[in-house]
């Protein structure tokens, strides 16, 4: 079945390119993959992925600006989770694709 060609307006083109930019970074991929399994605090992400807290915060800010992650505050702690099922599906498919090569 042939897929219908979709015209890309400038905004859509920008968002798609930024999403792929987000997914092109190994650190962001590791963070998104971790968040795929549930919400985590910044400290928890840093500890589980052996990253500096400042690195995690920087990458989460990038992902949040693209609305790929969201957070909730509990006291002084921020808990992050993924915020886009489409991107998580894309990431899952890419991981499966990579494992079958």
UniProtKB/TrEMBL annotation:
Domain HTH arsR-type: 8-101
CDD domains assigned: HTH_ARSR
Keywords: DNA-binding, Transcription, Transcription regulation
InterPro entries reported in the protein's UniProt record: ArsR-like_HTH (IPR011991), HTH_ArsR_DNA-bd_dom (IPR001845), Metal_resp_trans_reg (IPR051011), WH-like_DNA-bd_sf (IPR036388), WH_DNA-bd_sf (IPR036390)
PROSITE patterns, per the entry: HTH_ARSR_2
Domain of life according to the entry: Bacteria
GO molecular function, one term: DNA binding
NCBIfam families referenced in this protein's UniProt entry, alphabetically: HTH_metalloreg
Protein name in the entry: Metalloregulator ArsR/SmtB family transcription factor
């Amino acid at each position: 079945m042939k897929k219908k060609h979709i015209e890309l307006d400038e905004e859509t083109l920008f968002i798609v390119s930024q999403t792929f930019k987000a997914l092109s970074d190994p650190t962001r991929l590791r963070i998104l993959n971790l968040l795929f399994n549930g919400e985590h605090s910044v400290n928890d992400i840093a500890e589980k992925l052996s990253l500096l807290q400042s690195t995690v915060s920087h990458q989460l800010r990038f992902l949040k600006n693209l609305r790929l992650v969201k957070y909730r505050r509990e006291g002084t702690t921020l808990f992050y989770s993924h915020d886009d099922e489409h991107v998580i599906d894309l990431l899952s498919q890419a991981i499966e694709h990579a494992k079958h090569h």
